[in-house]
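Posting this for the archive.
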Amino acid sequence: MKKLSILLGLLIIGLSAKAQSMPDMLENVIASVVTVAVYETEENMQPMGFRGVADQAYERILDLSGTKTSGSGFVIERNGKKYIITNAHVVENASPTKDALFVYSVNQTKYAVKLVGGDSFYDLAVLEFLTTPGSEITTIDFRQDEARIGEQVFAVGNPLGEYPYSVTDGIISAKNRVRGGITGKFGFLQTTATVIWGNSGGPLVDSKGRVLGINSQIAFASRGGNQIWQPQINFALEAGISSRLVDDIINNDGLVRRAYVGLEIAQQYDYDSYMAMYGVPWVKRDSIPVVRHILPGSPAEKALAGKEGAGILSVNGIVVRNVEEVLGEFEKIKPKAKVTMEISFKGKKETVNFQSTELSTKNLEDLAKFVVNEHTNGTLTTDGEAVIYKYKQQKEEREQPEVPKKKSDEIKRREENLRYRGAMKENSRGAEPELKVVAGGIESESSSSIWRVTKMSDLGAVFRLSGMAGVFNIYVSDATWRVPEAIQVNPSGSDQIYQVTLWY
């Protein structure tokens, strides 16, 4: 009986300690979480961390008046310095001016911060304090071992920009999810810990307060033309990927280190009017991804010389069925690493090998020039400060068959206006018009992702982000235009063909 009493006593003490450990853990996590506030924005995105804490966090309403957008973030420490981690989409519209970006700590102290760098593809950004952060801010870090299905997790952030330090709990319900958007595609944990707008960039932590992921996306389902939020399906960029990206950004001048191979890889779909009646108008033409072009001077040039049109069967031993899977395997390749591709060319299988290089500013500049020269009726130059788009001389326009409406009336109006103004300039000056490139990206009737362009490499980055959308735009202007005009880039060359294109 005495032993039973002792055991019961120990069990009660253990349960009590466990009950206290979660709030203690969350108080430390809460002190590391910040609200990211953007006070000044630009139209286009830039292509790319006392008393009880709870008392301070909730004693008064956070005043975000004057902010244009806001999101969440959390603080880590690297090389003895504190950084804020958030999503790229929270800050990519921020103006580069000094009064554009601020964060609020747990006791509502406002700190000016600046962008260190980021990665639009993975939707991640790193911020740096412009003044020394106060002692109220704690730090947390990424967990080294992988998440386990079913383990308990907590999401912390500022949903709707109105409820800072909201905590929701749930479990890890799936791993290695692939999302369908243009950015933020690979390496997501799926969780039932509810997040919503404003939670973006906040941490998803385990029961010990270690970061398992960065809250990034929520799920919707289409029903009767409406988008219905699915609160039990939420996504966080997994800790292993996040940690690698953050270290690259901090130690590599704001950039993620990526391999470069120098290929244009595509998969084409034909328009089928019969199938369109059933809501699936595009029928696969290419059963596997195809090498369409090899960029001059690229790592792949010698190994694949003369093999344009080859189908890609596998990358580094992994079978690939579509362009997205090729992208997923390319993203795993480190700079200066061996690349092995099994291809099908003229009915025969063969293996090619070459060594990647590191993606550089020059690579992106060369890519921008190549895409414009190959897939538009123009060329790119620079005046040392701006990127200049210039129409090619004496190039006949290809006639396209009549097709179902895919462009919005606004896009058509812009393109028609552009052609008219270009013709007027040619008549008045007797020369091809020189137009400044100001942005590029995807514009549709339902959504848009437009990134601003200030240099040639920006445009190369935009092409890498946009190519898988099939059709995208370059936005150009001159001193007399109030609104930039759109030049459409359609790599397939036909409105009857939809082409998913990867430049890597």
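Residues 389 and 435 are 5 Å apart (CA to CA). Confidence is low (pLDDT under 50) at residues 1-20, 49-53, 395-406, 423-430.
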